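Table S7 (text form). Paired inputs.
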Amino acid sequence: MTSTVRLQNEADAARAGLSTALDDLRSSVTTTTLTNGAMTFAKEGSTAVARAAIDRAMASPLAAMVGRSCHN
């Protein structure tokens, strides 16, 4: 087998593998999966923000009260 034919065969095999991998990804990524992932991300992110605010307020309650009174 010549090197050109061998390289062509390798390229064809690589393309077939990539095509299969893309098909697998397409079938596994559904709208429901994306929605659930986004909701989980938002929930965890908002929990982290709330926890950070609580931690700061507990670390310095006076600053939290003063900061609140400046915004009212």
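Next pair, protein 2 of 2.
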Amino acid sequence: MGRIMRFAGISLIFLSGILGVRTAEAGPSRGLRVADGPAMEETTMIQKIRKTDQEWKGILTAEQYRVLRQAGTERPFAGKYNDHYESGVYVCGACGTPLFASVTKYDHGSGWPSFTAPIAEGRLEYREDRSHGMVRTEVRCAACGSHLGHVFDDGPAPARKHFCINSIALGFASANREEGMKKETTETALFAAGCFWGVEDKFGRIKGVISTRVGYTGGHTKDPTYQKVCSDTTGHAEAVEVIFDPKKVSYGELLDAFFRFHDPTQINRQGPDTGTQYRSAVFTLNEAQKEAALEAIAKLDASARYDCPVVTQVLPASEFTQAEDYHQKYYEKLSQRK
């Protein structure tokens, strides 16, 4: 309750601009299954991106908005990627999520960019489209819900899939740029240590941390929001995602900071904030992180630093949903208003 009281006095400043666009997910229709088509990599967990309609209008051109957010269609043979065959990756024109590899692009003759398969099936959503007197399968970006085009069963063997995508719904990253990005290796860590406002602020001050964002993870319901998570019924924890340069700061050093930033012996609370959403947890993205977290806890317990044992959970990372914009960099925004 203490967290909610702190929040109540300022929340009205932000509420008018945070009603996110929510898109219902649907499985592939008309016989399209997740197993169909030679996906280029294993399906990965997609981070959902939600913006208001006004925010999309501020980001996209009028024509992009018409196609991506209003399910419009550009004229055939008019798009810049119809006859484009450079090596690289095609990304969502709205949010930048990688969607199609250039090696899957081919000339279908339809007048729109055509692909045989996405990079991973989890990058796309499928919906039944009954517009214009036809029954088709619409394709959307799974991250932001933007309309991309349609998928048909008239593609080349063996999968026979034809992803017919609007050029204006895409962006492109050349292979040269991708190679450069690979050299700039970063790693991700995910921590829960009570109210995520202060935790994010503290992690953001560590040298080697490239970026942070707050959100919800570890729950059992879809589309968590601050209000839902505060009900203590969704199972989510308030968490901070930390992107860092391992050459400048190690995961072990971030773990040390994590334990300094809060009291890991408190169960389902931190200070005045109570509820499972305020629990202490490390959400690991690989086996090395899991081993490091367990080792750190064992050392803390053996050190007798605390009167009670450490109760921090070590759990495999699940879907991370970014929190509402007014929670991001909260203390930074607060200091700017003073």
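The CA atoms of residues 10 and 334 lie 10 Å apart.
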